[in-house]
Sequence to fold (258 residues):
Amino acid sequence: MSIFHYEDKTQDLISAISFMVYIPNAAPYYMDINHGIYPVRWTLNYEFYFYITFSICLLFKYRFAILSIWCLLSVVVIPMLYGNTPTLETSGYEVQTALYGLLSNPLIIEFLIGVVTALLYIRVKSLNIENASFFISLALLSYICYVISTGVQHGINVKIALPIGFFVLFLTLAENKIKIFIPNFLLWLGDISFSLYLIHLPLGFAFFECVEKADNALMVGIPYALIAICLSLILAHFSHKYIEIQLSCWLKRKIFSA
Fold:
């Protein structure tokens, strides 16, 4: 309840509930990711933004053209009209409102890259290029790991999103070639990955607080990390099974039967 004694904390709570951004000079998050409530939510703001825009584009015949025009207008043309120099950096533009910062941030181009990747996959999936795709995906993976590990490119960056998009494309095209080598554990980990992404941070914070209160040195370091990882995996498994799948299916049945 002490949250309501502080204006910034109250604002952050409202932001967390409503998925609204509120800090103009904190690109690309536009919220407090260091002390805010559930800071991992900043990526969901971009997902909501893209899903709404994508849904509108589905109403048109030339949906990809409309989507591309929207991206060009929001990220390049409109910022230029306000005197900004076009950029691909996720630091975005100097803005007066956080919402406009979100709407114009070049990070949204990564979603467009994902759409292009999907369209290319549909066009070339019937071609027999599994062997070539396999080696191309390995080369792209090596490049991506190199530029990120050496600091040449940051992980959250439009410039690295393009090779990542093509990596996903060629990896998918080579699926029949590589799936026999993928253990079931990695498939399971992929299935629960979204729940794991949402759960691991708040669980880690909560577990860390318990460890600090216990003041047990044996629980700090590697043992703590291993326990936190295991708990995150367990909770993500049940979240995927009962929320992502069962609850979603139940809601769909209720909506479409109404």
Observations:
- Residues 120 and 165 are 11 Å apart (CA to CA).
- The radius of gyration is 21 Å.
- Residues 125-181 form one domain.
